[in-house]
Design goal:
With about 250 residues, the protein is an alpha+beta fold. The chain folds into two domains: about 110 residues, Beta-grasp domain (Ubiquitin-like (UB roll), Roll); about 130 residues, Alpha-helical ferredoxin (Fumarate Reductase Iron-sulfur Protein, Chain B, domain 2, Orthogonal Bundle), CATH 1.10.1060.10. It has nine helices and seven strands, in the order ββαβββββαααααααα. A hairpin with a 2-residue loop joins β6 and β7. α2 runs parallel beside α5, α2 runs antiparallel to α7 and α7 crosses α9. The longest helix is centred in the C-terminal third of the chain and has 16 residues. It is elongated and about 65 Å long. The protein starts with a strand and ends with a helix. The relative contact order is 0.14. GO terms for molecular function: 2 iron, 2 sulfur cluster binding; 3 iron, 4 sulfur cluster binding; 4 iron, 4 sulfur cluster binding; electron transfer activity; metal ion binding; succinate dehydrogenase (quinone) activity. Its cofactor is [4Fe-4S] cluster; [2Fe-2S] cluster; [3Fe-4S] cluster. Belongs to the succinate dehydrogenase/fumarate reductase iron-sulfur protein family. Its EC number is 1.3.5.1.
C-alpha cells in the first residue's frame, strides 16, 4: 500500500507542534501499525532526518504504552485492540492517516506522539491498593469466600491497562472509567472493603486534582477502551463515593 501520513511533531511540552506530511509505500496489510511506523522511521533515519518519537513496550496489548490518536480515534478504527494490535489491513491503499498524541490537559506532550500519563500513576497511588497486615497474623486470602459473580466483575475491572483511551475519547477528558475500574477492582472483593471509604475519596480527589474533566455520560470511553471496561464501573464508583461521603 501507498499511504500519506500526517503526523504530529512537537519537540517538547513548551514548543509549538504541527502536523507534518510523510508519504510511505511498501506497506503490507499484515503489518501492525507500529511496524508501519518503524518502516517510516527507518526511512527517515536513512535520510538523516529525526525519527518520529512514539511510545511502546510489549507490543502485545498488555502494557498500554502505544497510545495513539489515529484518524480521530484512540487506538484507531478497530475495536478491543491497542495500537500495537491494530493491523494495516484496516486501511486502504491511498489512504491518508492522521496520527496524533492523546489530547488532555492531564496528559502533557513529552515529544511528538509521546505523552506523560503519570497522572494515572498518582491516582492509583492515592488508593488503588490494599494494605496487608504482615505482622505474623496474616490470613490466607484463599480462605476468604468470594462470590463468583463478584470475582468475575473484579477481574474484568482489573483488565484495565491504563492506556488512557477513555480520556482521549471523552470530550471532557474524563478519567472516570479508569478510576472507577481501579476502585471496582477492590470494592468488589472482601479484602478491599476494609479501606473502601478512604480509597474512593482519595482516588476521586486525586483525579480532580490532576485536571481531568467530568463524565459526559456519552459512553465513548467504553466504546474506545481496548479492554472493554464497562460503564457499570462508573456507576459503582459513584455509589461508593456517595456512601463514603455520607460516612465521612
Amino acid at each position: 500500500m501507498k499511504l500519506t501520513l500526517k503526523i504530529w511533531r512537537q519537540k517538547n511540552n513548551k514548543a509549538k507542534g504541527e502536523l507534518k506530511t510523510y508519504p510511505i509505500d511498501g506497506i503490507e496489510g499484515d503489518m501492525s501499525f507500529l511496524e508501519m511506523l518503524d518502516v517510516l522511521n527507518e526511512g527517515l533515519i536513512n535520510k538523516g532526518e529525526e525519527p518520529v518519537v512514539f511510545d511502546h513496550d510489549c507490543r502485545e496489548g498488555i502494557c498500554g504504552s502505544c497510545s495513539l490518536q489515529i484518524n480521530g480515534e484512540p487506538h484507531g478504527p478497530d475495536r478491543l485492540v491497542t495500537t500495537c494490535q491494530l493491523h494495516m489491513r484496516m486501511f486502504n491503499d491511498g489512504d491518508t492517516i492522521v496520527i496524533e498524541p492523546f489530547r488532555a490537559k492531564a496528559f502533557p506532550v513529552i515529544k511528538d506522539l509521546v505523552v506523560d500519563r503519570s497522572s494515572f500513576d498518582r491516582i492509583q497511588q492515592a488508593g488503588g491498593f490494599i494494605s496487608v497486615n504482615t505482622s505474623g497474623n496474616t490470613i490466607d486470602a484463599n480462605s476468604i469466600p468470594v462470590n463468583k459473580h463478584d470475582a468475575d466483575e473484579s477481574f474484568n475491572a482489573a483488565t484495565c491497562i491504563g492506556c488512557g483511551a477513555c480520556v482521549a475519547a471523552c470530550k471532557n477528558a474524563s478519567a472516570m472509567l479508569f478510576t472507577s475500574a481501579k476502585v471496582s477492582q477492590f470494592a468488589l472483593l472482601p479484602q478491599g472493603r476494609i479501606e473502601a471509604t478512604e480509597r474512593v475519596l482519595n482516588m476521586v480527589a486525586q483525579m480532580d486534582k490532576e485536571g481531568f474533566g467530568n463524565c459526559t455520560n456519552t459512553g465513548a470511553c467504553e466504546i474506545e477502551c481496548p479492554k472493554g471496561i464497562s460503564l457499570e464501573n462508573i456507576a459503582r464508583m459513584n455509589r461508593e463515593y456517595l456512601s463514603a461521603s455520607l460516612e465521612g
